[in-house]
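Q: A reviewer asked whether we had any structural model of the full assembly, not just the individual parts. We don't, so I'm hoping you can provide one. Inputs are below.
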Amino acid sequence: MITVNNILKAYNGNVVVNIPQLSTRQGEMVGLVGNNGAGKTTFFRLLLDLVRADKGEIVSNDKNVATTEDWKQYTAAYLDEGFLINYLTPEEYFYFVGSLHNRSRSNVDEFLKNFELFFDGSILRSGKYIRDLSKGNQFKVGIAACLLREPQVLILDEPFANLDPSSQLRLIKMLKEWQGRHPMTVFISSHDINHITDVCSRILLMEKGRIIRDFDTTADTLQELESYFKV
Amino acid sequence: MTFTLLSHQWRSFWRSRSAGKNLAAQIFIGFMSLYLLGCAFFLGLSLQHFLPRVFPGQDIIRVFCGLILYYFSIDILMRFMVQELPILSVQPYLAQNIRRSQLVRFLNIRSLFHFLNLLPLVIFVPFIITVIAHAHGPLVAGCFIISILGVIIFNHFLILYVKRKIIINSWWLVGFLGAVGILIALDYFHVFSFRSLSTSLFTSLIRSPWLCIILVALGLGSMVNNSRFLRKNLYFEEIARRGRQRQSTEYTWLQQWGLTGEMVALNLRLILRNKRTKAVVLMTFVIMLYGFLFYKPVYMKSAHMPMILLAALFITGIFIMNFGQFLFAWHSGYFDGLMSLPISIREFIRAQFMMFIAVSTLTFVVTSLYGLISWKIIPFQFAAFLYNIGINTVVVVYFSTRSYKGIDLNRSATFNYQGTGMSQWINILLVTLIPMLLYLCLAWLFNDWVGLTVLGGLGLISLLLQNWWINWLTNQFLLRKHTILSGFREK
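A: Here is a predicted structure for the entire assembly that you could use as a starting point for your response.
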């Protein structure tokens, strides 16, 4: 599904991302872990062609993401609030994103019913613009808009960071359910190693732009990660 | 205290991320201001030789007195355009051991450092010292200067007050523009005359100099009023925002244009829901009133025709110039997101063109009412309109693909009115200079009508090539896409 070839990104001589080779299969849940500055977010931006790679290429469905735009049809991402049009109401934003995928208003409304529990009554018809929502609620809008696009590739940057505990668990459950019905390649980064080993079938451990470990999740994974992060 | 706060301001200016990039522009603006002040000073010095020629056979002191309030009525309009509310994010200071009144005093003093407060002094004081002091003695001259200071202070704080009120309640804008419009119309149709009011006011000042106290009192009153308002509203924003219910709006009529329609709807919401963009709309309306200043029957003689064209270019194109120069930057807050959605840049730019043409057409149609003053205005406006939608759209969008600085639409507005400053006007100058030069050459070689036909014709040809232009602009954007993105991400 996604193949990374020799990708290199540096800012003022500091290498931020340096991945010689990486490929993921359709339906794989990939978790990125690593301390701050490991290059997770920059890697995600490279996947979305939001920063220019100094070297190498990222290929999505046999097409280079930097030279084509086909990947936008099936790739959804939420990295930060910069992905939301903050002066719209949540509904308006969903309708806008829906219209880009030829979904009608009523179709979007129907779809959003799946999120009633996740939204917890504080998003739809809240009488607020997105910019007036709390960070956690903004994130909920972001992820719902991603799933609304029925993506084959989903990219989420630190999804658990701003959510309350029950929303975190709901998100995990939701992602697993979606994956069952609707296989997609998922990239998630997180500092919460419990959650990430729970959700992901494959873990990439990043340090200073490099992937230093790449392993399938097993019963020992959590312990292995804990020993890596131990001070 | 005020001094400490001023030094913080000074540091925030020099340490801002964009300080280096802005420095060249600031120096340029500095020189422009010095040049303008120099011109004003010479104008002031030469008033005594200049007035007798323009108003032969009249008492020049009397004429001078008549001009003072006239100047200040235009001054109010200029201030409305150019004067920014003093920016200081007071948030970090509110929780410190600083009195509110100290913050307010700082904001007031900070705002006084403005070009427009110096300009009237430079124009009027030389004449007062050379002519009035000579004729009526130093006491009268002193009182004149004091009164002029009073009027400056009055205008200065009045505009700050009005602008702050507008931010809280947009009806103030309607009220202010309505009042200005009515006053201009009354003066224009000779129902009421600023000149005679000014003449009687300042000539009586010669007889009884103590009258200057009235003007000083007016100035102080305006200052006190503004300070009181500020003291009460230092935290108004937060309260106002929490209470208000936001509604979704539907633009069903736009949906028939598919994706382009959706983009236009997005733009409409962008414009209507953010302070910075609302200011652009406001400017469009204000500029529409400029016709009353420039489309005067006296200017219809051929020597003044270029003035008519300049006004027409502004009136039909101000929205294109103002909105277009930040075409991508308006969306900077969520540009990452926009670029990962399946929207083609071609569609995005096409939607902007559609909106430019719609707004420009609307202003053109409405301002065609100026044709009642003289039919000649209509061909001028028509040529300017075609040139604006045909060529200036392309120029402006091209330059916006070269602007890498984001705009923060959500900055709290009570202490922020960025975006309508001097640098913007310089930007606009470039877009008006080229057609003006073209027209002047052709008008000089042949005549006015050839100039207009060529301008309009060029605009029309360019308009027909719009698809080609959009493709070209798309490629220009894609060349610099990553630079734009990283610039916007930098806050």
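A: Points you may want to mention in the reply: The CA atoms of residues 459 and 490 of chain B lie 37 Å apart. The interface with chain A takes residues 241, 245-249, 255, 259, 262, 266, 269-270, 273-274, 333-344, 409-410, 482, 485-486, 489 of chain B (CB under 8 Å).
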